[in-house]
Amino acid sequence: MSTVEIEFCLPCGYLNRAEDVQHVILESLGETIDEITLVPGDNGVFTVTVDQQKVFDIADDDYNVDQIVRDVRNNT
């Protein structure tokens, strides 16, 4: 079982994206996840980590919910 953390820029309006990612991860992988948390941040941050390993960073990757879920699945 894994722990997923989604850190998002609150001032940038990324809350909806973070909630969307959280929802899809729970629907797709809920039985393999121990915990999934949303962490408000700033300065344009939007990252997803699995067991403290970064699997998505909006600074490096295009935002694609399906790809994020695949990356989470591959790291759980």
TrEMBL record:
Keyword Lipid metabolism in annotation: no
Top-level taxon of the source organism: Archaea
Protein keywords: Redox-active center
Pfam families from the UniProt entry: Rdx
Presence of the UniProt keyword Cell cycle in the record: no
Annotated protein name in UniProt: SelT/SelW/SelH family protein
Species per Swiss-Prot/TrEMBL record: Halorubellus litoreus
